[in-house]
Amino acid sequence: MPPALSNARILVVGLGGLGCPTALGLTEAGVGSLLIAEDDIVEETNLHRQLLYRDSDVGHDKLEAGMSALRALCPASPTKLIAIRSRILPDNARELVRSVDLVVEGSDNFATKFLVNDACHLEKRPRVQGAAVRWITTAFCVGAESHPCYRCLFEDIPRGLDAPNCAEAGVMGPVVGIGAALMVEFALGLLQDRKLEGQLATYDGKLDRLRRHSVRSRPGCALCGTSPSILDTRYETYVDELCSA
Question: Does this model's pTM top 0.85?
Fold first, then answer.
């Protein structure tokens, strides 16, 4: 049984285009504690899509600027904001995940997405994973038992130019707001014990079309399938950018 909203501890991975409005929505909702993991600085190119930052924040720590903005925008919120000044890595992922009731991930690289998925599965924590690139944004809801999981959708970390991230391909600013709204909807729904496991929402900004459907578990999934091969979070499972970025 999930905890009551006022007692829930949620880890937000990344305070970027998706993470900023997601953190704002969860703070406005009054969740118990919001742990925010981020280690980057604000860049001018972030400002069109990362709504917690202003021109004066450029060059400054995202965590400090973002949490200050959250407190200013939600002065009456009872949410306790906890800074995690670090990226999610194989040697801290499981400990961080284990310390919360729910994980919301909106990072901009595949290595982190797969790592969060794997750590949550191993620690039996539900999560909502979001992405946005160009005109498209998605939100995917995974239950504590991880059937289906992110690896049922994408078997492994994509490589090369066929899988650009938002930094490479760009993203329309308003699209991330819609993606974050979907992520917050899923997160609050999980805390309300709604049966959302395996639900995938996709919004196409060009067509102004929102689609929802259920993802099926994949028996051959390396993480949650019938014969899993991923039993821990080792650096070699992921790509070099996770360690060096």
Answer: yes
